[in-house]
Amino acid sequence: MKMESSELIPSLPEELSLECLTRLPYSTHRLASAVCRRWRQLLQSQDFYYQRKNSGHTHKVACLVQAEKESDGGKKPGESPSYRLSVFDPVGAVWDRIDPVPGYPNGLPLFCQLAGCKGKLVVMGGWDPDSYKPVTDVFVYDFGMRRWRKGKDLPAKMSFFGCGSAEGRVYVAGGHDQNKNALRTGWVYDLRRDEWSELTQLSQERDECEGVVIGDEFWVISGYNTENQGAFDGSADAYGFESGQWKRVEGVWEAGRYPRSNVGVGKDGRIFSWSKLDSVVRAGLCGIALGDRVLVTGSEYQGAPSGFYLAEIGEGQKVKLEKINVPDEFSGFVQSGCCVEI
């Protein structure tokens, strides 16, 4: 029987071998993992991800919940569209699809939420596309291995909650329950342990809020309570990762303005609305920060074709939109999205 070499790459020093492997594109990791047991253990470890990140060999992609075009198997006019997961890699402007999540071959759960966490994509909740009933499913996609695994279910049936991620954890808060009652609850999902833990409650109910991580805080912006559906509030709750406590912040959002997929953060940490950038993206808008650039999708008015733009955030929240060409099969409406560093 042939013995496996203890060296990462025969005849090369360990440090140089590791440097070579960190430079492999993530798309080759699945194939490289089949070389030997040691490569597989290394490439699938969190330490290797951090090694790539610290050496500057990761990059950020946009993952999108995107409606299928009718010509690509979408439903007929008048029917609710099916949604798939698309990926836009700004390095080379490459578009791709992710395989369907397990158990949903004909489309994602409607209004499911996405979060990027330690190089992986987390898909949470939503509504069953056939029954329109809320689901608690959680799925985790590994880009290097190009495969899904089932995560621990959401601790409750909730929809339209805010979410964000930091340091291997996904934070969710607000939304509404299966009876349409707005929620004040919050939870955190530890990706490595595959466990959910409950947070202390928000200062108020926040249905259809938006979640975003700013520095060392998870912000839950706007939303409304059960008695005032659609009356979006101008305040936010911010959860400190170190303190483990929420603080209420007033006047961070324009009261009455829809926040979901619409919250931007300037270089100075101030919150603003993507829909105020330009008249070409005032309807059906979604903005996804990709480091120094942002992928912005939207249209001039409801029902108009979606446009796709890359934007650079300057000082004082100055942003310049640059229209990008998109293959027809990836030109459908973008419902939501997130950034994943892979």
Automatic annotation (TrEMBL):
PROSITE patterns: FBOX
BP-aspect Gene Ontology terms: negative regulation of cytokinin-activated signaling pathway; regulation of phenylpropanoid metabolic process
Coiled coil: none
Short name of one Pfam family: Kelch_1
InterPro entries, per the entry: F-box-like_dom_sf (IPR036047), F-box_dom (IPR001810), Kelch-typ_b-propeller (IPR015915), Kelch_1 (IPR006652), KMD1-4 (IPR044595)
Domain named F-box: residues: 6-53
Protein name per UniProt: F-box domain-containing protein
